[in-house]
Specification:
9-stranded mixed beta sheet; Leucine Aminopeptidase, subunit E, domain 1; alpha/beta; elongated; about 35% helix
């Protein structure tokens, strides 16, 4: 599916000559009355449904009208709720509701009037960015992300989709500000769509070699370098975790290095590490068959890293960014890793295999150790690592662990802005005893309790003293049902979060 065209222009609701038009109306009575009067003026009709039980401007409400002035084209009105509760996320959700309504009416183009600046004056207190730009970016994100569909394998032609979305601003200066925000939003949306497409791709299409090739092609298009290590190079590096997990698969592993920019005075080096298990059967400790198909998305961390590096390169952000992707399948072949085996990782530490379904931390261990070669200012890993984090946080927050409060604070702030929220979980030293091994440096599982925490404790052994955050995205990357602008399946989580943080990295 092609991403709709995005633009921002000066205009009012009656300016567009084709397609659906839309506006957002607050619930506060004086503001609602003023909005209704303005709408009726544009529409050339009285609109009695506005203010009736059908629509009062509440959050989540929408109404589709067909006024005379639009000559049969739909006017979509979405509620914003009370002004005091207005947020970027509410704008995203309202825009998503509008875009889905336009799609339901088979419209190929949609024009959305941006809320008046008076509504936006306290959108994000103390932000240096203009509220109109923040609002325009949120509206663009919500609208475009909501119409995503992974439909490349449908043999029947798909119904016509929205092909263009235009934001209408009150004047030329506002249109320019909105246009700048929309251009930024489009780059971030493209990175998110890439992450969604990769996550949703079936395992017979996406495997270590093809993931590496996708990275190569992405680097050529977007202006960053890509190196791919084959099995022989991985063996020379002594990445025992990656090699061990790959033993059960007929497909060889790959270690992919993405790099944008270079280290220079005043420029930070950030390393992103993404788990790239392109299919996870659990290995010898095989998973139940129910829902195993979802495990094609066990490389969502790798997808988020690739989408983020693509966006950062296209935005030309002033940061030296490295992405590391250990890629493999985890299958129960004749040479597969077995419970009781011992692996030696890149940094010399050893792991006793207690459960072969705890494979993600084994390959991340090698990648995290490799990250130290860049002497980074920060390392952030993303992984669909544990079911335990889903039990703890569900599908609405990513589990966050780390050794640097400042880095975690920045991610938390970006999570609130993008609504890809993170929640810190503890790493008390007492948890380390749960992964103590009698015969190796550590076991790869810690038993039934605190599973997300013991996984993070395992990874900590491979980080050293570098500022580090581990994001367990198992609950937020693989969605069991569709949300307002997040589809069922691969969500693409992580791209918007990381790009937002990296855009502000020069402030560190």
């Amino acid at each position: 599916m092609t991403i709709p065209r995005l633009a921002a222009v000066k205009g009012i609701l009656t300016s567009p000559e084709k397609g659906a038009v839309a506006t957002m109306v607050p619930e506060d009575k004086p503001l609602f009355a003023a909005a209704k009067q303005a709408l009726e003026g544009h529409a050339g009709d009285s609109l009695p449904l506005l203010g009736s039980e059908a629509f009062r401007g509440k959050d989540g409400e929408s109404l589709v009208l067909f006024p005379r002035a639009l000559k049969g084209r739909p006017l979509i009105v979405a509620g914003l709720g009370l002004k005091q509760s207005l947020s970027l996320e509410r704008l995203r959700r309202s825009a998503a509701l509008i875009a889905r309504q336009a799609s339901a009416f088979k419209q190929q183009s949609l024009s959305i009037q941006l809320p008046a600046k008076g509504l936006l004056d306290r959108l994000i207190p103390h932000s240096e960015e203009p509220s109109l730009g923040l609002a325009a970016g949120a509206v663009a994100e919500g609208a475009v992300l909501s119409v995503y569909a992974y439909d490349r394998y449908r043999s029947a032609p798909s119904p016509k989709k929205l092909s263009s979305i235009t934001l209408l601003a009150e004047n030329a200066a506002d249109a320019r500000a909105a246009g700048t925000a929309v251009a930024l939003a489009r780059v971030v949306i493209e990175g998110t769509w890439l992450a969604r497409d990769l996550s949703n791709a079936p395992g017979n299409e996406l495997f270590p070699e093809s993931l590496a090739e996708a990275a190569r092609q992405c680097g050529k298009r977007s202006g960053f370098s890509v190196k791919v290590f084959d099995r022989r190079r991985i063996e020379r590096l002594k990445m025992g975790g990656l090699l061990g997990v790959a033993e059960g698969s007929a497909r060889p592993p790959r270690f992919v290095i993405l790099e944008y920019g270079r280290r220079r005075p005043g420029r930070k080096t950030v390393v992103l590490v993404g788990k790239g298990v392109t299919f996870d059967s659990g290995g010898i400790s095989i998973k139940p068959s129910a829902n195993m198909a979802e495990m094609k998305m066990d490389m969502a961390g790798a997808a988020a890293v690739l989408g983020t590096v693509q966006a950062v390169a296209r935005l030309r952000l002033p940061v030296h960014l490295v992405g590391l992707i250990p890629a493999t399948e985890n299958l129960p072949g004749g040479r597969a890793l077995k419970p009781g085996d011992i692996l030696r990782h890149l940094n010399g530490r050893t792991s006793e295999i207690d459960n072969t379904d705890a494979e993600g931390r084994l390959i991340l261990a090698d990648a995290l150790a490799y990250a130290g070669r860049y002497t980074p200012d920060a390392v952030i890993d993303l992984a669909t690592l544990t079911g335990a984090v889903v039990v703890a946080l569900g599908h609405h927050a990513t589990g966050m662990f780390g050794n640097n409060p400042e880095l975690m604070r920045r991610l938390k702030e970006s999570g609130e802005r993008t609504y890809e929220r993170v929640w810190e979980l503890p790493m008390f030293e007492e948890y380390a005893s749960l992964i103590k091994s009698d015969i190796a440096d550590a076991k790869n599982t810690g038993g039934r309790w605190a599973g997300a925490i013991t996984a993070a404790m395992f990874l900590k052994n491979f980080v050293g003293h570098v500022p580090w955050v581990h994001l367990d995205i198992a609950g937020t990357a693989i969605m069991e049902e569709q949300l307002e602008y997040i589809p069922k399946g691969g969500s693409g989580v992580g791209v918007r979060l990381l790009v937002d943080m990296l855009r502000r990295w020069h402030d560190v």
